[in-house]
Amino acid sequence: MMLAVQRSAVRGTAAAPPSKSHTHRAFILAALADGESVVSSPLLGEDTCATLDAVAALGAAVSRRGDDVVICGGGLHAPEKVIDCKNSGTSMRILAGVAAQIAGTTSFTGDASLCSRPMKPLLDALTDLGVAVTAADGGCAPFSVTGPATGGCVHIRGDISSQFISALLIGAPLSGRELNIHLTTPLTSRPYAEMTIAAMQRRGVSVITTGDGFIVPADQSYRPVPVTVGGDFSSAAFLFAAGALAGDVCVTNLDPADPQGDKMFIDLLERLGAAVSRGPDGTVRAGRGELRAADVNLADAPDLFPIAAVLATCCCGTTKLYGAAHLRFKESDRIRSTALFLRDMGADITETDDGCIIRGPCPLHGAKVTTFGDHRIMMAAAVAGLIADGTTVIDDPGCCAVSYPAFVADMQALGADMRYI
Prior knowledge:
- The chain has 12 helices and 24 strands.
- It is of the alpha/beta class.
- Helix 1 (20-32) runs parallel beside helix 2 (46-57).
């Protein structure tokens, strides 16, 4: 099945789906807390369901209560079966940090894409903490960790993935000892680490930020707390972009105080010249305006790259997107995947090591888009199809279920001409 997109206008209101990042953390931290935690309004996508299955395999009791997920945590143990994280890097990385603090051996695998993504910096850090690690060539999955960790000080790169840091932070309280994390390179996607720290603190665990990393003090434990998962600014970016390029869209279910780094997309829209208005209730409306080029540093919000590149094709002048070299190690090489589909659609785009340069405005035309199974490529291409002449045909539209299962339905409700073929 493929998705055909025609030039069309969008108008109306849509609710941002629940945050994937918050849902992962809510499920994992609930499993680590001794007692019952209720997670309300979680995102039940392919990635977060992989996390839910994994915490159940580690010994947490998982059940559904209406739209809520109830997790009774504590007393985790090494599972009898291999944990299959499917396509979810967040699941694999954070749970590897958890498993490292559990006695026994825990094995991880995933799909072909996930098994090609970097794990070595985290696995090396776990080895330095006294964990026995066996891994495939190059330090990728499949791999096994045998805990518990015995050390309390570790050095790790911060420029590959903030998920490595979140993994070490979240697992640390299980040891009962202080953990001192020293970053040997600057931390990319820092807001995701800050999101992790905020979630830990809400559950009673303090984290100290130092000049070169973080310290998790000794003798702390997680307490169960009820959590309502807020809206996802990463997913909302596609709705905002659709409004800015093809009409007028109001997005609800967003908390402006949320630490998600991708909320910078709203400021970016204003900077580029889109019509943006913010309501007192947290709603944000995006509409068309005269878009102008800018240099945009995406180091703290790399997931925005594909949809920011689509916006840039409609900007007058030369736009440079930079600071996101680690995008080459996502579900796909997102820099190359984005450049490929936009070039096929007529964009004047040049790849760089850490982003791209787009000379606009670029009249787009329909093309056949290969998503490489990457949900953000799929959704960015669908938004681009709204302003392209002719038909844009997108392979594997179902891959958006990773983060935004209702994406096509929500876009259709706004008036987008999208249909499965």
